[in-house]
TrEMBL record, chains A, B:
<dbReference type="Pfam" id="PF00356">
    <property type="entry name" value="LacI"/>
</dbReference>
<dbReference type="GO" id="GO:0003677">
    <property type="term" value="F:DNA binding"/>
</dbReference>
<keyword id="KW-0805">Transcription regulation</keyword>
<dbReference type="InterPro" id="IPR000843">
    <property type="entry name" value="HTH_LacI"/>
</dbReference>
<feature type="domain" description="HTH lacI-type">
    <location>
        <begin position="3"/>
        <end position="57"/>
    </location>
</feature>
<protein>
    <submittedName>
        <fullName>LacI family DNA-binding transcriptional regulator</fullName>
    </submittedName>
</protein>
<dbReference type="InterPro" id="IPR028082">
    <property type="entry name" value="Peripla_BP_I"/>
</dbReference>
<keyword id="KW-0238">DNA-binding</keyword>
<dbReference type="Pfam" id="PF13377">
    <property type="entry name" value="Peripla_BP_3"/>
</dbReference>
<dbReference type="InterPro" id="IPR010982">
    <property type="entry name" value="Lambda_DNA-bd_dom_sf"/>
</dbReference>
<keyword id="KW-0804">Transcription</keyword>
<dbReference type="InterPro" id="IPR046335">
    <property type="entry name" value="LacI/GalR-like_sensor"/>
</dbReference>
Length: 358, 358
DNA sequence: TTGTACGCGTTATCAC
DNA sequence: GTGATAACGCGTACAA
């Protein structure tokens, strides 16, 4: 049923190899031959069989992007950006949702589907430094985020501490003294929560404000619902605040909802800033100030690094850690619409190779 | 380098066929043999080579989901649901972003990537009834939406007219008389915009309200930004309104932003309802009333139909059109939080086969 | 219950 | 420039 190279060759009166040459753009072909083959291809409606090509070339042209869930706007936008970047390079992306569960995240690294693609861009949320062994894999891998520093792979991260500090200082610069933080993970040493909380404390310190545990709102999952719940709880507990730094935009938008429900004016009584600068932030009421962590640059860089690894033949390049530039985007929720402040810029650093690619 | 079935067979002292049997769960294998093979697999770290299997079985285990863009929350949530449904059935999803451009949508149906997967779930936004010929394809296809009725494929759609009518009546039942609609596509005969606008007019008629062209706000793209712009334009033009039906939630959230900017109270002065019931709707300020079109059911049904087609051997089943149940979810923006109204239920209908699968 | 042998559609290595 | 032909790794008649 399916028409093969063999059929085309027969039709065009050439050998199968010549058809292959035409299909793959091999330059040294007589124009007349090429035309004949192309005509045969059109007439027969021939299509390359990807499975056969993949088997032969040991490459699939696919890469995997593993994220917690697409319903979270940050990851949806990240996926969009990754797909676009890969597309521009002629590659196709397969998305894997982990639900941030240990089991699924482990599966991503070693499961059945691992072998469908040539490489992996992985944003882990459940696995941490204790699982670093799992990341010693024999395929091209780029890790997003900062949960597993030290893994033998390229990393693309965010300027978390510096950006969170800048966000906190932004609130302090408005004269706010009781700055709450929402989304903290108590006792956690790594990951975005820990780093952003660290930045928050650094910001308080630099602004000469005391750190008050009462101002720290825990929220395991960074969803809108948890943001709303955490905010509500703090308000119900009578914690006095005049500003909130939410560790991501979903939390912030949830918190905004809770503030509204408590008839608290934003930014009049409480200033609010989030983190991620998702598209929603621009259109909430009031528009949400946020930290733009350089999402597009993250996606672009991750794809670039991964494709480099996939293309690398033999020479084990040193692992790299790339930190995109981030900036504070001031909008109505902190009363400074249009204000954009650059955070200390990111950069690239080389990490010694402690492992080679198989 | 890569360990193959052959290696495993040698190691276990059996034939390659036996290894294959074990890997594929063939039941009639002596327990001892099976154990020996499994031990060999573990020791050697053997993994099935998907490319080889795909070539042999003429199947990839992948399906494509083609949507405009993942940045749009509705499609992100749809993708989430489709991936989950496919996953539960052991299938993997590859997402294709079309940017709603004719070129990319055409490519999805016939381009290079078409042959990477076993079937396609396609939500077209640029192609319409005139392009119906493009949909006569020789691979399993499920079409989402109502732009190309009549195409020889299974359809999963929404109860657009009935749901839009119900949304309009919901606003009318609050005593609103000047109900604007946002997101209309002038002159368009098919697609969500046309159908929902038709439902809007039907709702007005049933409520005994006149149709006023001034109340119709055009918006080609259904983004937040266009919703905000359209709403602003209407308000600046001095159009008198006391309610707004936005044809999707992105438009509604944008409109909400514009209303707020114009210091118009929602729902006090203007009641607002959207369409899609995306997750954001629950957490906007005020929370947005919306039409839940049965997104999960759509995703689940689409996957189910597609896998049926893929699995179908020979017998060309009639094409089906499935319409999930939809309902109105009342929240603060129409002043009736918690109110849920069922819209006339959907259903399944069989369509004559005017084409067989190749 | 297990083994042998062949073919899936390509690409790649040589000759010619 | 072009043509045979051997892999690539797996599934599956068919045989044993």
């Amino acid at each position: 049923m399916a028409v093969t190279m063999h059929d085309v060759a027969q039709r065009a009166g050439v050998s199968i190899k010549t058809v292959s040459n035409v299909v793959n753009g091999y330059p040294y072909i007589r124009a007349a031959t090429k035309e004949r083959v192309e005509a045969a291809i059109d007439e027969l409606g021939y299509r390359v069989n990807m499975s056969a090509r993949n088997l032969r070339t040991r490459r699939t042209g696919l890469i995997t992007l593993a994220v917690p869930e697409l319903s979270l706007p940050y990851f949806a936008e990240l996926a969009d950006a990754v797909i676009s970047a890969a597309d521009a390079a002629g590659w196709t992306v397969l998305i894997e949702q982990t639900s941030a569960s240990r089991e699924r995240e482990t599966e991503v690294l070693s499961g059945r589907r691992r072998h469908l693609t040539d490489g992996l861009i992985f944003s882990p949320l459940a696995l941490g430094p204790d699982d670093i062994g799992l990341f010693s894999v024999d395929f091209p891998l780029v890790i997003l985020g900062e949960r597993v520093f030290g893994a033998p792979a390229d990393h693309v991260t965010m300027n978390n501490v510096a950006a969170a500090k800048a966000a906190t200082l932004h609130l302090a610069s408005l004269g706010r003294r009781r700055i709450a933080v929402i989304g903290a993970h108590e006792g956690e040493q790594v990951g975005s929560a820990a780093l952003r909380t660290e930045g928050y404390r650094a910001g308080l310190a630099e602004a000469g404000l005391p750190f008050d545990p009462e101002l720290v709102g825990e929220a395991g999952l960074w969803h809108r619902s948890t943001g709303a719940e955490t905010m509500s709880r703090m308000l119900d507990d009578g914690v006095e605040i005049d500003a909130v730094f939410a560790l991501n935009d979903a939390l912030a938008l949830g918190a905004l909802h809770a503030l509204h429900a408590h008839r608290i004016d934003v930014p009049g009584q409480v200033a609010l800033i989030g983190f991620d600068d998702v598209d929603d932030a621009k259109y909430s009421v009031p528009a949400l100030s946020s930290v733009d962590p350089g999402r597009d640059q993250i996606a672009h860089t991750a794809v670039e690094l991964l494709l480099e690894r996939i293309g690398a033949s033999g020479d084990p390049a040193p692992f790299r850690r790339v930190v995109p530039d981030s900036r504070i985007v001031g909008r109505e929720s902190t009363g400074e619409p249009g204000d954009v402040v650059d955070v200390q810029p990111g950069g690239t650093e080389q990490v010694a190779v402690d492992m080679t690619w198989a």
